[in-house]
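Continuing the series of single-chain predictions for the mutant panel. This is the parent chain; the variants come on the following pages.
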Amino acid sequence: MKKIIICTVSIGLVLVVGLTALIMALVPVGQNNFIVKPTNVYFLNETTKKNGDEWCKFRSNYSTDEKEKLDELYRIFNEGFSQKALTALFKGELNDKVETHYEKSVGTENYVRRDGDSTHLTIVFEYAEEQTIKADDRSYNYKYLFFQISNSTERVEYLFGVSNSVSLESSSRYLSYNYWFTTKMNATKLYDHIAELEFNVEGSPTHIIDSRA
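Parent structure:
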């Protein structure tokens, strides 16, 4: 009887462990819950600067085509944050979280470059309604959020600067900020998606970043 009880308990434990592993292999963690869908999206690098002030962009309130492109871009953007719980556990990232930061620049600027080459792209989210970030017991309302992606295929920490105003003019080399988010993301799908798109640059359909293919 004792052996039967031990075997039953052992089988039960194996089933519990197996079920837990299965659930963790299916359940996603790390979803984006801090960056909401923007009203407009701007794309900035050396290629897009050739347009001067006629920026490469998607606007949700301009046309059905641009709205659909913005929605699809945001959907793919969100996918970059998520990974399966089991994967996160093995990588030691199960407890990773979004960090908020504040630092008042004195003498030097905190900035994201906007003049990247053909493998880098700065993306700017613009909001019709102000968003709020809280960091170091401070609150700040912002209308722009910006970050730069590259052709990296790694899941790494990304910085998302925020500001209530930005300079999108072609002469500007950077976007400055005092408040920012940091969290891990894999931008592979986002980069590849944008690399396939064509934008009007100097009057011609143009790929604004290089494809990895």
